[in-house]
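The data are set out underneath:

___
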Amino acid sequence: MDSPTDQRDQRLRNLQALVERGIEPYAYSFARTHTAAELRALHPDLAPGDRVEGNEVTVAGRVMLLRMLGKLTFATLQDQSGRVQVSFERAKLERYDAIKKLDLGDWLEVTGHVYATKTGELTVDASAFRLLAKALRPLPSKFHGLQDKEARYRQRYLDTLMNPDSRRAFELRAKAISYIRRYLDGLGFIEVETPVLQAQPGGAEARPFVTHHNALDHDFYLRISLELYLKRLIVGGFEAVYEIGRNFRNEGISFKHNPEYTMLELYWAGKDYLDILALVEDLYSNLVRDLTGSTRLVYQGKELDFTPPWPRVDYTGELASRMGVDFDVLDEPRLREWVRERFPEPGPGGEPPLAERPLNQVYAKLYDHFVEPHLVGPVFVMDHPEVISPLAKRHRSRPGLVERFEPVAVGMELGNAFSELNDPLDQRRRFELQEQLRAAGDEEAQRLDEDFLTALEYGMPPTGGLGLGIDRLAMLLADAPSIRDVILFPLLRPQT
């Protein structure tokens, strides 16, 4: 087999030969009358040998198969909707010899009548054809597609071209986003846009990316959350707002983490976290049914049932149960002593042992170890400790906790929701505690945002808020094992 370089050289020679024949190799547009899917839907029952009389049709797509039989050539064109066969006869085409200079991957426009071959294959009998774009590089093998994972991520254009499952994953993702918009718009929500570049990152515990604006001569941050600006809009008189936008966090990469990812965030005045919980159940169950035909789906071999109501799991109770302790995990001295006995080793990078770290980190590590990986779900994890929830309202009946839940499935957090903290004095106190954590070395602790506190002092009504990860939703819908499989162009180390 010729090398890719040899094949490219041959394609360049074919290109030159076509130009010498007066054929423009790179068109400005095409005039398709039917997609492949539309054509098949229009003629579902053609018998072998049948021919459709009347108006000709025009199809356009990429050449994926090419069979030259002397005076007759068959090609398969692929467009976004699917594939359709076309045929070329020497007797009907003045430039039939130009067919010999076509290559797999070329884009063609073909006009002709529809018929069914002797084997019953729907086909367009070409009365005219036009080259739309000459492909200078060979496509991956039609039998193996693009199998190497990293190659698929780096050359997504080949991945979606050659792997139907990959293309389907991104189509499902797009349909899910469209469904969410229709759902929220139907409830009276208004879609808004908030700044990506922010003078003060906030709304989450995360390490931001920093950049410098030359004209203002000031450092700005790529946002780590949509939250604080959306809450400003609730103060400003909007009562139901949402945004579907990108967040950026300077953190590690894993099967469920990418430094750039998409979130839905919404805020609804007059609602609390239980109202938002009902919304999540309804949204997810109806979305999954709309896109898959059922409220049940299989993800990596595990069946998930999104039919409401979902089970509810108490954060502290579940943590104590899985740790096998008989004390309230809010009892900090006993909790630290238990951790000290079982996790005495220093952390990575010279970090102190877990028992010596801030309490929010202790809870996070214990939850990630003992609880979340074991939740198949979907379930709601309810009522988190206040120390790990600086933006949530205190629980109305459980001291030390906040009104917060996380939907979880197959060991993945799908989102986060609160009865939002609207007391500006309490919010300031919590921000100050976060600042103390930052001063002690926690780079992900939240920063004190004076402008947000000023907004709260003008009065924010009781509000329920929600953040849902679009990428993880797409993983579930597409049965994708990695978040990179549902992000079109995931972040990768540059090739050298």
The chain has a mean pLDDT of 94. The longest strand covers residues 57-68. The radius of gyration is 29 Å. Residues 104 and 249 are 41 Å apart (CA to CA).
